[in-house]
Amino acid sequence: MTSTDSPDCLFCKIVAGDIPADVVASSDTAIAFRDIAPKAPVHVLVVPKEHYPDVSAFAATDTEGLAGVIGLADGVASELADGQYRLIFNTGPKAGQSVFHVHAHLLAGGELPGFA
Ligand code: 5GP
Ligand code: ZN
């Protein structure tokens, strides 16, 4: 556990290896693992190892870390799909955020549905 871990946070526990996950890639500062309920042929969550509640707090504090998350997602999209992808940061409950450790949803593979 590092000083930035949040003890009750699901994704901190995945980062620490205390809860198993299908990890597809990692870097010094971020890991990527498959979403437990995939919404696309490739649906991977990319999270910084440090705990931030959402992308707003993350971007305000660690732009390098944010670039690292995006870079890791980009690499995974090339490894597991054809390099074309959608990245979504749900931010706040009204936007659908349910886990309050910032995560990028990487959606790829096949044709993704358009937004309404
Ligand atoms: P949010 O709703 O916060 O944007 O996204 C949270 C995501 O975490 C959801 O897509 C959900 O399926 C995924 N999720 C929830 N619990 C687990 C888990 O224990 N393991 C993994 N791999 N994904 C999870
Ligand atoms: Zn956390």
UniProtKB/TrEMBL annotation:
Listed CDD domains: PKCI_related (cd01276)
Cross-referenced InterPro entries: Histidine_triad_HIT (IPR001310), HIT-like (IPR011146), HIT-like_sf (IPR036265)
Domain HIT, first and last residues per copy: 10-116
Motif (Histidine triad motif): 101-105
Pfam families according to UniProt: HIT
Official protein name in the record: Histidine triad (HIT) family protein
